[in-house]
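dumping this here before i forget
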Amino acid sequence: MPVHELAQLTWEEVRDLDREHTLVVLPVGAIEAHGPHLPLDTDVVIATAMARAGAKRLGARDKVVLILPALAYTTAGFAAAFQGTLSISRVTVTALVVDLARSLTDQGFRLLALANVHLDPEHLTSLNDAVQLAKADRLLPIIFPDLTRKPWGARLGEEFKSGACHAGQFESSIVIAERPDGVRETIRASLVANPSSLSQAIKAGKRTFDAAGGPRAYFGDPAAATADEGARLIDALGAILEEAVSAEI
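structure:
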């Protein structure tokens, strides 16, 4: 079945979609520092790749998929000290996602899935809150596979599981595969691996990249990234989205 980008359709084409068999996917990312080698919209690039890979899989299950324009602004407090990072409040993010769910509900859609790889703790809370508020308001269900929770994260490689994965091998590989012209290759190849675990730092109460051991806003090993690994990771993210949605339909 077809995969559509909402922004590329006319209103009449949207009107004529079969609501019973159409699933809606919202890529969610951030504009924030990703080391000296990746663009500020890295999370948006990866979320969009996840959305498209998941949509392709769902289309093979006889579902029509409608991909919304990405939500690019969210809570990004850990990177707030780095120029170019744009952070908005957790409450605003939750309200925006719930309002989108309400609008989709009013138009007769039955399910909204979130494709997200931005792991700022407040951002994750905002999305999980939106899931619960949509349920309380009897809106269409919001499906959110939180990659920090089981079983999803274990499927994304050793660096991801270590927590040292912001702008490292994991994210750099995906951007190389998805948008190679956005990677500053000379800088990436020169970066020394940073094994500091961002997830462990968060558990220890750290609240900034600098305090967590990432003074240049990267964790992990960006120099080890490859396009082949990026393609495998995009496929894994798409499978996660497909499985999370399929469990609810």
